[in-house]
Amino acid sequence: MSPKPKRAIALKYKPGDDHAPCVTAKGTGRLAERIIKMARKHGIPVKDDPDLVEVLSRLDLHDEIPPELYVVVAELLAFVYSLNRQKGSK
Description:
Layout: E1 7-12, E2 22-28, H1 30-41, H2 50-56, H3 70-88
Antiparallel strand pairs: 1-2
């Protein structure tokens, strides 16, 4: 059995401007690899969470995440904010 192709989802959220995070990019295989590469190139944190990617991949581009995912995505944002704080303290 061959391994599943890599998948990636990019979210955008600006507190105060956005009601909820929304999907800005998504892809499988080579496109997923490009999304991840671009994120890293621009200093955007990348978190490997196949279960979350599975759920988010069902959304269309520019869709806001549904309320039932708020807690999970809030945990992801907390992860990103903590990484940003660590970078700022160095």
